[in-house]
Amino acid sequence: xxxxxxxxxxxxxxxxxxxxxxxxxxxxxxxxxxxxxxxxxxxxxxxxxxxxxxxxxxxxxxxxxxxxxxxxxxxxxxxxxxxxxxxxxxxxxxxxxxxxxxxxxxxxxxxxxxxxxxxxxxxxxxxxxxxxxxxxxxxxxxxxxxxxxxxxxxxxxxxxxxxxxxxxxxxxxxxxxxxxxxxxxxxxxxxxxxxxxxxxxxxxxxxxxxxxxxxxxxxxxxxxxxxxxxxxxxxxxxxxxxxxxxxxxxxxxxxxxxxxxxxxxxxxxxxxxxxxxxxxxxxxxxxxxxxxxxxxxxxxxxxxxxxxxxxxxxxxxxxxxxxxxxxxxxxxxxxxxxxxxxxxxxxxxxxxxxxxxxxxxxxxxxxxxxxxxxxxxxxxxxxxxxxxxxxxxxxxxxxxxxxxxxxxxxxxxxxxxxxxxxxxxxxxxxxxxxxxxxxxxxxxxxxxxxxxx
Length: 453
Hints:
The chain has 13 helices and 18 strands. By secondary structure, it is an alpha/beta fold. It has three domains: 6-121, Methylthiotransferase, N-terminal domain (Rossmann fold, 3-Layer(aba) Sandwich); 142-376, pyruvate-formate lyase- activating enzyme (Alpha-Beta Horseshoe), CATH 3.80.30; 382-446, CATH 2.40.50.140. The strands form five sheets. A five-stranded parallel beta sheet has the order 2-1-3-4-5, sandwiched between helices. Strands 14-15-16-18-17 form a five-stranded mixed β-barrel.
């Protein structure tokens, strides 16, 4: 194209959406489009939406309408393209409901984003747009690496299988190629994500060569990025996915962090059955005890879905006692949301809103008490910290990073006293103080290798 058009990207929701946006950005950059800094510079706006909860859907629509107002008041005419979960969930109804949006792109249509943008901006092509082998544009020390999409669990409270479709493992070859590309670009931590990472490979053909399960994939990713110093973290494991082989791979592969994210949602066998999930309090307790016994220093994150339909006050208290007894390092607490199209939405015994809020807040209070204590327990320790960025404060620039026991963007950060370091540097740090989920760190040593320029 003669005059490159600029695209503004806005992402809502989880890390999986961040990866999807980055993939679209990569395709559009390869096709000759530039990235805009704001609506005033944009020829077109892409908003990648979330619809996991009703509140997320509302936020997506409100943000889109606010964008439409900004575009209308601006100098340029910038069409809005809505991508992701909202079009996937409500696609048929959206054109009439949101006439402000020029095009809707479902999650399974996002690889065709160049054609959508070309048509809206009137850019014809004599030859097809270039498609890069690895569709990423990550800049920073951490990169999310999506290893699967969709979900086969059909938990009774969740709409993800209807939005994202059935479970689909990415090929090991494409995952390894992307891992190598990201690390070559300066990434120091790879975070493996998917709706259900623990069952990666279960749907691959029997004659597939290479890794066939998550344990083997972790070992392959680690081998692919050596000799670079890289942390590998895996999120969104389910209890059933914690096989002997996977536990051994996490324990014995140096690059893989001893950090487990297992969203249990509840400990009551009755509530779990109503959720269309398996397990019981005793089974979960044995699993977490085993993880901590077999993997020294294991850090555990989990999730509690509070006030699920029919949850009794006694079962709520059982879950709080379970959280306290296990002593989770990090717990995300969500109030049950009545999602259209799910079985739980049709269940009797919906918890009144006031009671739902009370139970949720009680769980949050406990989660914070446990999390703050877990964070404070690291004071006096020495560990490596990856530098994620530099913030301007009243006292001057401050380095912000995260330690191995902090998942990026959700577990707090480390505030460093060093003045000379680059994003991507790995520093040896002594933790001198804590506040909430945050740590204060004194830099003892800086590695000799480069950060990100």
